[in-house]
Amino acid sequence: MMNSYTDIFLDQIDPLLQRSLQAFLDFRSRPLADRAKLLRAIAAELEDMGDHWLAVANKETHLPEARLKNERARTIFQLESYALACEQGDWMRISIDTALPERNPPRPDLRKMMIPLGPVIVFGASNFPYAYSTAGGDTASAIAAGCSVIVKAHPAHPETSALAAAAIERAVDRTGMPKYIFQHLYGASFEVGKNLVQHPLSAAVGFTGSFKGGKQLFDWANQREKPIPVFAEMGSVNPIFLLPGILQSDALELASKVAASVTLGVGQFCTNPGILVAVQSESLDSFRAHLTDLMEQVPSAPMLHEGIQHAYQSHAAAHRDQPGVSTCVRANELAEGLASPQLTVVDADRFMSNAQLQQEVFGPATLLVVCKDKEQLLAVAQTIEGQLTCSVFGIKEDFIEFQTLLQFLPLRCGRLNYNMVPTGVEVLQSMHHGGPFPATTDARFTAVGSDAILRFVRPVSYQNCPEEWLPTELQSANPLNILRKVNGEWTRIG
Amino acid sequence: MMNSYTDIFLDQIDPLLQRSLQAFLDFRSRPLADRAKLLRAIAAELEDMGDHWLAVANKETHLPEARLKNERARTIFQLESYALACEQGDWMRISIDTALPERNPPRPDLRKMMIPLGPVIVFGASNFPYAYSTAGGDTASAIAAGCSVIVKAHPAHPETSALAAAAIERAVDRTGMPKYIFQHLYGASFEVGKNLVQHPLSAAVGFTGSFKGGKQLFDWANQREKPIPVFAEMGSVNPIFLLPGILQSDALELASKVAASVTLGVGQFCTNPGILVAVQSESLDSFRAHLTDLMEQVPSAPMLHEGIQHAYQSHAAAHRDQPGVSTCVRANELAEGLASPQLTVVDADRFMSNAQLQQEVFGPATLLVVCKDKEQLLAVAQTIEGQLTCSVFGIKEDFIEFQTLLQFLPLRCGRLNYNMVPTGVEVLQSMHHGGPFPATTDARFTAVGSDAILRFVRPVSYQNCPEEWLPTELQSANPLNILRKVNGEWTRIG
């Protein structure tokens, strides 16, 4: 066990992966119900830590208690919803086509299900110390998939992570699961990440963080002799398109929603709206004036750590200094890790010719892009990079007028919001939290909701397998009561 | 249109992709039923070509008429089954969670479905001039997904491909689909492939062929500024494990099945069994003698083209020349593109220490690996690379004795066969035709069966979208009668 917060030695990585593989082989041979049991036990252990875990996370991340309470509830809910997913089993996408011995040539019995990939490497996120760190969504969905997990804790909140790791270890022990199904380590160095991702026994990687970090993991994984999948959630500026009708009818209300979304959690969300796009008009001027007022009133607040604060100040300054950018609200240079909001404005021509303006400024900053007309707004939409989310605000007439935009935006994002800000990610099956590169390295998979399990599995077909050797999930009597596609029809009947 | 068989000029690639994108944008805005209509029209046009298409393919590929008739039937069946998949829509994996306005905070309406990726580049295969070429499975599944398609014809059967392309173009025209939804080109050069895969508008790649070719496409795609998915089906040696009990009870019958599978279609199948693994015994000696007799009796036959024949002869010779390999049946050096079978034998120690013996010999050749005992057979299984298929032949007692092997093999392959040879790939939902690297570049996706559509789509969530702006597939009334998961329950009810 590595329970100090010092970096792992590189020569410890091979034994770590060897143990992880052995635990995986044991775990995957156990009933699906065991995964649910383990996930529920982890949820209970986290709950049992009570206020102590909150106090430690508050000290390490400066996130307020109310936010941490919410995030803890979400983390526990995630674990429980993956447990439920294991009990239901739909995500295994079982398909059975029974033999047709009379056909010429005879058709064999074929049954398909999902199997786990193997040891999964998880890199914890800084901005979700609970929900996307040691006991977060990546760990929970990898366990639901039947994988073993190795978490590299985020160096910004080591003690919060250590408490979560100890809770998971207690749950593993209490439920009698293989000890090394979960392992936890510390390592801020480049070499630790590289050695984990490139170890021959690693089977997949989950990551939430910067574009630079995620892309590096992706490249390492693809340069392996045997490439492995990397699910990296990276930067996103989550553009909001503000259409003319709603600006005219409701500029103040709109400004208030946008200001709240931009500054929520000191802007430290992957779905933070960093770009606003609208056609010039008097209503837009009025919206901009309201937004300026509202953002100026937002008090400065501490960011997660000083590294993030420094990056925010330098990226916010870099945006302000681009040609043609004017500043309505300026991010102050504050001490003690504090940050204040920023609102900048640029015209669409400048925006479209300067890729740097699409770079994420991680923090409470947003850039208003002012278009001459509808056509230019459509042109801006086409230059936007892949995003986790896009949002449109409009009234009925706007949606009729801007149909082309509504048709186009799904091609650029993983979630399209109507008259809602992008912050606030529901943990639901219908949630897709992912998006085209560079928002993530694999737009086909979500990091939120039960489908996140699909990142860590792959299908296998069993052909002509005697009933007694079939995995339980595929047996004709359907002992696990899973909804399966049998000879083309969905049924729970065996 | 490029209807000569000369290579496309590199400066024609950009306009080709631009047209493909425009056609895609048009096609994706049309009803799902239009995809089915187009696919059925293509099937009808192929059927209408009658014997002429057979004669041309026979001349270009040397495949006998009976095989070509079967392959044509399969190609038409594939198109029709993707049409049916579009009519049913299950593969869209629609999930709907309706709003809970009373919740605090209110839960928004969220609906998720699959959308097409964009222009897909398909590289035709040499060994399936119909089923995995111009009008083959990749083209059909990409159209079902709603993508536009650009096919680079395989240079070994240009006229067969040209006829298929013309049939598709007639079907596009007859059904009123956007003209450039399908484009066909020729290009044997390295640069053509690279320019197609690295063009910024290309969205995904389908390929069937050699490891070298597939890996090159994969690397090009990942070196792009925006990486795209590559579905390359590459080499596989499809090991068959022959267990002691069945060898003892049925050595001749077993030898006859294996000989037929190894030499089927002059061994030119991706599921051809190139490795046989068994524990030494008198029964194995007897099996080997039978197999030698049977393979010696198989007449030489023409391979697809001279390039494949030359590769076969040199790879077969390279296998024979490895240390410790003895030759039971030797591939003759024949003229006129002909090939004859080869059977070689090696002991497990030599096999495990020589990775070259795992290289695919594309053609009617197989290598028998003789193990000292059960433990050594398990060790051989662990050294086997990722495969499309693994197969085990055994009686009940064998399966009890070799449980560890049965548990392990799914981790190495996409399909596990019991008492069946790997050749013969059923086109069914339950078929997984894919496997861990290096069998394919993405083990999570199949190239056969309706799930192959999933290669060319990704999920998008619509949040709080007014009913009238929802895609038809997601509308509350469920006008397309798709089975959807609504608030956690599978239903066709709106």
Note down, in words, how this protein is organized.
The structure is a homodimer of 494-residue chains. Chain A has 494 residues and is of the alpha/beta class. Chain A folds into two domains: 10-234 and 444-486, Aldehyde Dehydrogenase, Chain A, domain 1 (3-Layer(aba) Sandwich), CATH 3.40.605.10; 240-418, 3-Layer(aba) Sandwich (Aldehyde Dehydrogenase, Chain A, domain 2). Chain A contains 15 helices and 19 strands. Chain A has helices at 13-28, 32-48, 50-61, 65-88, 137-145, 158-174, 190-198, 211-223, 244-263, 282-297, 306-320, 348-352, 374-383, 396-401, 403-408, and strands at 95-97, 110-116, 120-123, 149-152, 182-185, 204-208, 230-233, 240-242, 275-279, 301-302, 326-329, 338-339, 342-347, 365-371, 387-393, 413-418, 457-463, 484-486, 489-491. In chain A, strand 6 (204-208), helix 8 (211-223) and strand 7 form a beta-alpha-beta unit. The longest helix of chain A has 24 residues, at 65-88. Chain A is globular, with a radius of gyration of 24 Å. Chain A starts with 12 loop residues before the first helix and ends with a strand. At the A-B interface, strand 1, strand 2, helix 8, strand 16 and strand 17 of A face strand 1, strand 2, helix 8, strand 16 and strand 17 of B.
